[in-house]
Amino acid sequence: MNRYISVFVIGMAAIAMTGQSFGEENASVQISNFAFSPEVIKVKTGTTINWINADNTAHTVTGNDGTWDSGRVKANGAYSHKFDKAGTFEYHCSYHSSMNGSVIVSP
Ligand SMILES: [Cu+2]
């Protein structure tokens, strides 16, 4: 009996995981202590990343290629950007030159 329950649970988990990979995906990056965490994030195309500013100061999330920019993200604010193309997208905070991160988007 326990064996059948285990198979069922594993099956449900597999369905949940598969469903997620075909649906809208989301990921998040924390901004805290003047750093992006994780500094490097790997996602699949179509993923929306939500940056959450947990600092008590404003930051920006600015793509180094100039095609995307959050503008000012206030303390406790957030910014979202969807990545539709594969590639490596480096970004920084335009207020604090030590703050850098990258998004690696795979097909
Ligand atoms: Cu900053």
From TrEMBL:
Cofactor binding: number and manner: Binds 1 copper ion per subunit.
Pfam family, one: Cupredoxin_1
Residues noted as binding Cu cation in the record, renumbered to the chain: H59, C93, H96
Protein name (database record): Plastocyanin
Transmembrane residue ranges: none
Any one of the GO CC terms: periplasmic space
Cofactors demanded by this protein: Cu cation
EfeO-type cupredoxin-like domain boundaries: 7-105
GO molecular function: copper ion binding; electron transfer activity
Protein source organism: Tolumonas osonensis
Localization annotation: Periplasm
Signal peptide (residue range): 1-23
Keywords: Copper, Electron transport, Metal-binding, Periplasm, Signal, Transport
